[in-house]
Amino acid sequence: PPSLASATAVVDPMAPSFVVPPTPAGTFTAQCKASFTVQALGLHQDDSITISLLSGPSGGQMSSPVTSNPGSAIYNWSPTNLAGATTQHVCFQAEDRTGLKRTKCIAVTIQGTGCPASGSPSPPTQQVAQKPQPQPRPQQQQQPQQQQPPQQ
Q1: Pairing mode, strands 71-77 and 34-41
Q2: What global pTM score does this model have?
Q3: From CA 72, how far away is CA 140, in angstroms rounded?
Q4: Alpha-carbon span 65 to 148, nearest angstrom
């Protein structure tokens, strides 16, 4: 018989599956704060998927939950008193309407350099490229125009 040390958890093949992307495959790295979508798809007809946070660092939370098929939520974490890079494991659970569950853990790394002090708003983790705005030219003083004599 197999020993308990070599036993692995068997997951029902009909349990919801995490969708990669938008769910990170196994790691997620950000400068100052983490924010990413976790999504799972159910395999049963008329399924409804609920995503929940099983474990993770203090202050991490789920927002904008969508209980449907696929189900999704956004994970947010802004570490406090960050004095350099830190990596934490965050685990999520997707559960379908029949009670089948699947778990996914992601290693989240916050680089922590150039971040605002605790209590200050953090810059977004992903920035959309913006077109440079034209800079206004300094106003030059207008010289009074001299009148030209009428041409004959």
Answers
A1: antiparallel
A2: 0.69
A3: 56
A4: 74
